[in-house]
């Protein structure tokens, strides 16, 4: 086990020229925790990671790793190891030499190097492949060489930038499980960037959801899924995404644009009413639904319906359950998420 270090960002900001990519940001990564930074393409995830690693300079603010200010230190002095989407292995070196390269650069004697290479390779399950060159390894094996190269120095901090996105679906799934296991064994503070919500939900102790350089929500996977703090988080997490229906509350009902009732609620004023497709039911009562299209996904079916005012709602049901002739939208207690229509912020419901 390495000694884990807390990472604290204090007012950290980044501009490229006159473009502000990250407005001043305060963020703490708990020592030893697995934190996933999740957000759409271009929201600033890699930039944030590069600032921690020292591959980009901050435009303002301070970064502390293990209580030490590092924002002016070069990358090698920060105690972070980084794994990228592209494995960036040396093609002419064997897997073993690639893994040991950081130790060689650091002047670690050969005997100790060999022992640490063997241990890192064992941790990622590559013990039998050390003599092969990258061209003789599969994509998943190459990515594991890159991970072994990162852990060989026993870093306090592991930074991952979409390390699985070059792998096919099955290998991604396998490697994801291996990474979770690896984190449990190594215990380094881990920051993992992805735009894949399944990776975030399965790997993270804590998820930071970003949108356009800003943090939308920080929480456990369960918080993020069950209590999304904003409309953005609600629509970004969940597959298929949560339906968000514009409605107006009169104190008894939330009503659709044509005045027809959607669901009982004491809320007044304009809201977005959110319901996850897997929580919505076709109960024959409730707001009338007109079927638009359906996707049969084997184990379940996702159907999109039109509401009385033309808005749409998705409902997921187990395969083989017929749609009632007079379908109505049922929103069970606890399944309704309300967001302010203007600010998109979650309302206490
Ligand atoms: N060197 C640079 N100069 C100018 N703008 C940059 C530079 N690097 C990144 N940007 C801009 O900063 C924003 C954030 O980029 P970043 O690479 O951090 O996004 P990301 O969240 O990692 O996206 P992706 O999921 O596509 O990797 C983008 O709008 C990008 O165009
Ligand atoms: Mg990126």
TrEMBL record:
The keyword ATP-binding applies. Residues 7-237 form the ABC transporter domain. InterPro entries: AAA+_ATPase, ABC_transporter-like_ATP-bd, ABC_transporter-like_CS, ABC_transpr_MalK/UgpC-like, Mo/tungstate-bd_C_term_dom, P-loop_NTPase. Keywords: ATP-binding, Cell membrane, Membrane, Nucleotide-binding, Translocase, Transport. PROSITE patterns: ABC_TRANSPORTER_1, ABC_TRANSPORTER_2. GO terms for molecular function: ATP binding. Belongs to the ABC transporter superfamily. This is ATP-binding cassette domain-containing protein. It comes from Pannonibacter tanglangensis. The lineage of its organism: Bacteria, Pseudomonadati, Pseudomonadota, Alphaproteobacteria, Hyphomicrobiales.
């Amino acid at each position: 086990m390495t000694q884990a270090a807390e990472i604290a960002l204090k007012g950290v900001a980044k501009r490229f020229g006159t473009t502000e990519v990250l407005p001043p940001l305060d963020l703490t990564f708990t020592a030893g925790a697995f934190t996933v930074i999740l957000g759409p393409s271009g929201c600033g995830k890699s930039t944030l990671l590069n600032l921690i690693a020292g591959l980009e300079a901050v435009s303002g603010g301070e970064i502390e790793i293990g209580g030490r200010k590092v924002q002016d230190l070069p990358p090698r002095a920060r105690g972070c190891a980084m794994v990228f989407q592209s494995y960036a292995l040396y093609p002419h070196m064997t897997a073993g030499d690639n893994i040991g390269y950081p130790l060689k650069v650091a002047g670690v004697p050969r005997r100790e190097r060999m022992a640490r290479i063997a241990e890192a390779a064992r941790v990622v399950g590559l013990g039998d492949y050390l003599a092969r060159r990258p061209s003789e390894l599969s994509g998943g094996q190459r990515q594991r060489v890159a991970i072994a190269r990162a852990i060989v120095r026993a870093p306090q901090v592991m930074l991952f930038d979409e390390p699985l996105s070059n792998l096919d679906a099955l290998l991604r799934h396998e490697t994801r499980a291996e990474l979770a296991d690896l984190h449990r064994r190594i215990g380094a503070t881990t920051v993992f960037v992805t735009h894949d919500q399944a990776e975030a939900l399965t790997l993270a102790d804590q998820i930071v959801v970003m949108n356009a350089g800003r943090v939308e929500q920080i929480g456990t996977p369960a918080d993020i899924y069950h209590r999304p703090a904003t409309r953005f988080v609600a629509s970004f997490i969940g597959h298929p995404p949560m339906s968000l229906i514009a409605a107006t509350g009169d104190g008894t009902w939330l009503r659709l644009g044509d005045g027809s009732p959607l669901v009982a609620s004491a809320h007044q004023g304009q809201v977005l009413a959110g319901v996850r497709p897997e929580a919505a039911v076709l109960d024959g009562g409730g707001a009338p639904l007109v079927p638009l299209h359906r996707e049969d996904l084997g184990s379940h079916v996702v159907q999109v319906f039109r509401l009385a005012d033309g808005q749409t709602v998705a409902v997921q049901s187990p395969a083989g359950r017929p749609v009632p002739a007079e379908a109505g939208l049922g929103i069970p207690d606890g399944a309704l998420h309300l967001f302010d229509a203007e600010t998109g912020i979650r309302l206490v419901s």
